[in-house]
C-alpha cells in the first residue's frame, strides 16, 4: 500500500509539472523560435510588397486610387503550437490540416495575419472554447509601416487532449472581409 501511495504521489507531482508551461516571454526569446518568427515576418512583408506592386500597376492604369495605406486583411493562418505534452514549438506548414506532434494540457498557439484586422473580431477557438490573446507582435515593412501581426494565444485548460481549432478575424477596412483558418491539434 505504501508503494502504491508513493507511486500515486509521484505521478500526481509529475502530472502537475507536465501541465505547467513556461512563461510566453521566455518561449518567444528562444533563438530557434526567433528565427521562425523572422521567417513568418518575411513572408508577410513579401506578400505586402507584391500587393503594393499590384496596387501600383492598377493605379498607373487609372483603374483604382488607394484611399489609405492600410492593407485590408488578406489572410491569416495558425502556424504553431507548444503544449505541456509537447513543450517545443510544433511549426505548422500553411497547407497542413493538423499539427505534426501530439499535444495536451495547457498550450500556446501562434497565428500570423497579413493586413489590418479589427482587434475585437480576432477569435481563436478550440473545441468551441475561446482562447485569450496573450501577446500581439506587429510586423512592419522596411518603411516601418505596420502590415500585419503575429499573435500568441493561450489555452489554460489543463485537461485538453486534442481537437479542432479555428482562427478568424474581420478586416478593419473595406471590404470588411472575414478570413479564417482551421487546424486539428492532435
From TrEMBL:
Alphabetic keyword roster: Signal
A Pfam family per the record: DUF4879
Signal peptide annotation: 1-18
Source species, domain of life: Bacteria
Protein name as it appears in the record: DUF4879 domain-containing protein
Organism: Pseudoalteromonas luteoviolacea S4060-1
Amino acid at each position: 500500500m505504501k508503494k502504491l501511495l508513493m507511486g500515486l504521489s509521484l505521478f500526481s507531482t509529475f502530472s502537475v509539472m507536465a501541465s505547467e508551461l513556461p512563461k510566453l516571454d521566455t518561449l518567444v526569446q528562444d533563438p530557434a523560435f526567433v528565427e521562425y518568427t523572422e521567417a513568418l515576418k518575411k513572408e508577410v512583408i513579401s506578400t505586402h510588397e507584391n500587393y503594393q506592386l499590384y496596387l501600383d500597376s492598377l493605379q498607373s492604369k487609372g483603374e483604382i486610387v488607394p484611399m489609405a495605406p492600410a492593407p485590408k486583411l488578406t489572410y491569416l493562418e495558425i502556424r504553431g503550437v507548444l503544449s505541456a505534452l509537447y513543450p517545443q514549438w510544433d511549426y505548422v506548414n500553411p497547407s497542413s490540416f493538423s499539427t505534426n506532434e501530439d499535444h495536451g494540457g495547457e498550450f500556446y498557439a501562434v497565428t500570423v495575419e497579413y493586413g489590418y484586422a479589427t482587434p475585437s473580431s480576432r477569435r481563436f477557438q478550440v473545441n468551441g472554447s475561446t482562447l485569450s490573446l496573450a501577446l500581439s507582435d506587429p510586423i512592419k515593412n522596411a518603411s516601418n509601416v505596420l502590415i500585419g501581426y503575429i499573435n500568441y494565444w493561450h489555452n489554460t485548460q489543463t485537461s485538453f487532449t486534442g481537437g479542432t481549432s479555428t482562427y478568424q478575424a474581420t478586416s478593419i477596412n473595406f471590404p470588411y472581409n472575414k478570413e479564417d483558418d482551421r487546424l486539428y491539434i492532435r
